[in-house]
Amino acid sequence: MASPTGNAGQENKRASDEKRSVKARFYQYFRLTSTFLYVALVARWAILYPLVGSKFLPGGIHEFLCYLLIYAATSEMFWTTVFHGFLKSMFSRIVLKNVNLLYFVGNLHFHDDYEHAPVLKSAAYSSFIVTVGLSQTYCHWCKLFRSPKHSRKTVLQKIDTYVTLPIMYLSEGYLLLLNLQTPSFHTYPWLQTVNKAVLVAFIPICLHALRKQVASQ
Hints:
The chain crosses the membrane at residues 29-52, 64-87, 159-178, 190-210. This is LAME_0H20318g1_1. Keywords: Membrane, Transmembrane, Transmembrane helix. It comes from Lachancea meyersii CBS 8951. This protein has 6 helices and no strands. It is globular and about 70 Å long. The termini are far apart. The protein has 217 residues and is mainly alpha-helical. α1 (4-84) packs antiparallel against α4 (123-144).
């Protein structure tokens, strides 16, 4: 005859397993949706750019880009905190990456006039869209289907590290520089000071992130 204590222990274990299963499903849903949304971003650019060029590209893609970056960045920071705790996650590369993407949105969303923003009509805007789409598609897909450590050094991993990420950082840095040089009615003195400080720190932080990425391979 099973003891009440043993039955209670089994019920607690079953409840804990179910809770972990639900959490895992929500996490997989986030990774899967982020992967397909970033694929959709690149596909949208590939369809729009030959049709409208860089002049009218922001009107067809910028709002989608901003909402996608907000969704993916905030969700990834949330799940990183859930699995690793707040203090351990605070200074991680994952949080740094997502804070950078949210800063990009906050700095370049241009409210209701993004269709006419000169900054978004540069070639750097297109290269940023393509590289952030490819890099984050690869990132979320790999974390959805985690592979053993011995198989991490793939051709795609090297392309992401040595080609995609550097182009993405250069494109973003150039867009932030253009934004400083192109005042708009969203520009405030205090905001310009913050943006200049961020731009000064941008290159060292990117180099640090790339060095960590190379070291992790």
